[in-house]
Amino acid sequence: MDRFDAMQAFIRVVESGSFTKAAATLQMNKTSVTQLIQQLEIRLRVKLLNRTTRKVHVTADGAVYYEHAVRLLAAMDDAETSLSNAVTTPRGKLRVDVPSPLARLILVPALPTFYARYPDIQIDLGASDRKVDMVRENVDCVIRGGSISEQSLIARHVGDLTIGAYATPNYLAQAGTPTHPNQLAQSAHYLVGYLNSQNGKVAAVEASLDGNTVSITGRYQLAVDDGNAYLAAGLAGLGIILLPTYMAKVHENRGELHRLFEPWAFSPMPLYLAFPPNRYLSAKLRVFIDWVIELMAHHAPKCAP
């Protein structure tokens, strides 16, 4: 039995609650994972897991061993990193999930600068607006706009996205150009709805001017749950969109979108980078977080409280 492989398998089973899910994240078959855990229990002479037909539960002894195993593997990772000069050049694979527009317009174009510093880090990048089960999918960190509802995650505020209201010239020619946000709830205008991934409801946005704050409300014919689809709906003239300005900039410059309510300030969208508390903050993850903070300081600087 390779104790390193056995500890890794045990940690994955505890975090995912399933031998099948653990095997998938480790790219092993379920039988091999089961055998590793059994051999580990025989070696330690304790029962680490209680197995039922539906779920795997860690025992009291298993919970203690899990904490030690996580720290031990972290120390081993640090030792290997130090021996390979990875303090300055960390190495290994990171699994990251970010919103698709952020990946397309900010993160991916900037990655050459990241790889110039850290050529030995491999990134598996998921680009989506969906809610990610970080433990089950073995994701190291996510970047998300808006609040992080999962209280179990460690979240770092890395930036704020400025928001603007936009519509196409054709849409405004047909529906008229509103001059006050309240007109959207009192006229024939349509908003394109953006569905919150946490609760499935259309996200609300507030705007303020001279101490007055209003909530942007109105009818919609279409609501979507993806940033790229949301932008596409606005460009198709399906309604007014409330969009991060970095997504609208090129289309505004081309005359494809017109910005509305410019005297008004919209509530910024906070950006968070989150990771599981039991996931070791390795050198490769630390430098990635630092790089994201540096990147967002340029593209989405934090707003004053």
The biggest beta sheet is recorded as: 5 strands, mixed
- Overall CATH architecture of the largest domain: 3-Layer(aba) Sandwich
Give the CATH level 1 class of the largest domain: Alpha Beta
Distance separating the two termini: 54 Å
Structural class: alpha+beta
Low-pLDDT regions: none
Radius of gyration: 24 Å
Q: Give the helices and strands as they follow along the chain.
A: HHHEEHEHEEEEHEEEEHEHEEEH
Lateral strand order in the biggest sheet: 4-3-5-15-6
Number of strands: 15
Fraction of residues in β-strands: 15-25%
CATH superfamily of the largest domain: Periplasmic binding protein-like II
Chain-averaged pLDDT: 86
Envelope shape: elongated
Can you tell me about this structure?
By secondary structure, this protein is an alpha+beta fold. The chain has three domains: about 5-85, Arc Repressor Mutant, subunit A (Orthogonal Bundle), CATH 1.10.10; about 90-160 and about 270-300, D-Maltodextrin-Binding Protein, domain 2 (3-Layer(aba) Sandwich); about 165-265, Periplasmic binding protein-like II (D-Maltodextrin-Binding Protein, domain 2), CATH 3.40.190. It is built from nine helices and 15 strands. It has helices at about 5-15, 20-25, 30-45, 60-85, 100-115, 170-175, 225-235, 245-255, 285-300, and strands at about 50, 55-60, 90-100, 120-125, 140-145, 155-160, 165, 190-195, 205-210, 210-215, 220-225, 240-245, 260, 265, 270-275. It has a five-stranded mixed β-sheet with strand order 4-3-5-15-6, with helices on one face. It has a three-stranded antiparallel β-sheet with strand order 12-7-13. Strand 3 (about 90-100), helix 5 (about 100-115) and strand 4 (about 120-125) form a beta-alpha-beta unit. Helix 1 (about 5-15) crosses helix 2 (about 20-25) and helix 2 (about 20-25) packs across helix 3. The protein is elongated. The model has no long low-confidence stretch (mean pLDDT about 85).
